[in-house]
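tmp note - Triosephosphate isomerase
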Amino acid sequence: MTSSDRLLIGSNLKMYKTIAETVDYLSRLVSVTSDLPRESIDIFIIPSFTALPAASMLKSDRLKLGAQNMNWADSGQYTGEISPVMLRELGIDVVEIGHSERRHVFGETDDETNRKVIAAVNHGFTALLCIGETASDKNLGISEERIRIQLKIGLHDFPKEKLSRLWIAYEPVWAIGVNGTPAAPDYVEEAHARIRSTLEELFPGEADHIPILYGGSVNKQNCCELIALPGVDGLFIGRAAWNADDMNTIIRMTLPIWQEKIKLTA
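out:
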């Protein structure tokens, strides 16, 4: 089963590229992927806040842009924060919410991610809600509980009429970053099935339309096996995608597999 007729594939650039480097990266990515059928794929890139104004000049139907975080308030006394109104001026498509670094480095809570998710979709953005268990959760055997809590709180009171603006990214914390350990395919498949089951509890009869992406040490060596898995609707790639030509390679490796999967599940 797939939840989208398009392959969703993107990357969060974190705090790694300057404005000039981001523009060079995006320009190259747009160029090398210009021949790809856009009816079959959505490519999205999430640069740093400082690069967004320049990056927005390169935005087109061939490239969606996202923000790495967002406050839930339209305005207010929130020093250092960015509001949805500010992002809307830039024509941003996607807002990444609840990334593990926001949760574990900056102490963002499930309640806060919930407020951000609701604000994002109410302002017309696609909310990319990131969820995933830590190594400690995994070792204690509470991975499923952790994911269910993140989903149930993060999507509390979500407006069902805006489900088309919701993406889920499953990123086991122990699998991401420089020292991440890639998750085994059967582990990913099982986790995505549990996520789908929880979404069905929250949105009966409508959960099948919510895309679930996988992120966690995705690279050229494992991308094909991952995208072929049932329930994996896209890939959220880290450093393996930070070179435009490498990203292009991963896209071209996975797109035919995705298209074949679509045919088999149609």
